[in-house]
Amino acid sequence: MTFAALSDPTRRAMLARLVQGEASVNELAVPFKMSLPAVSKHIKVLEKAGLLIKTRHAQQRPCKIDGEQLKQAVDWIEQYRQLWEGRLDRLDAYLLELHASESAARPAQEMVTSPDASKPIDTPDKAKRSAETQAQAATSPKKPKPATRSARNQPTAKEKTDDDELQQQIGFDF
After folding, report:
1. I want to staple 5 with a disulfide (CB 3.0 to 4.6 A). Which of 22, 49, 55, 57 is the partner?
2. How many CB atoms lie within 10 A of CB 62?
């Protein structure tokens, strides 16, 4: 219900307004071109989802934000953020390794032959890249090479165990 309530931009705008403090239904309705009954329906959805609370002060019923459901949603999302950041980090390492192996194979292909085909000549782009590569190699510390993966890009046993453990904590398999 929390995510369904947050899916509407009008309700998100109402919550953003309530972050500043309590507001009446009329105050929440001001920035929107809709009827008060429509605004009330949005408020009811937020109230059912536990994202806001209506209080009573004499004739007025100001609304205020209730952050408990938002905190639970953020905590749930955080678990997936950690999982996907780990997966994306491993993908990045694999792509860097793949790029490095391709660049090692590329110099032989980049030689352009002269019109008389008697000797190869370097292109200006190749000379520039070569200078940049040498400068980087001289200034950057040697990094250990990431573990290679099979042709199907399967995670290593430790990575798979980490993913399985996080999925078990989350309670959702994908």
Report:
1. 49
2. 17
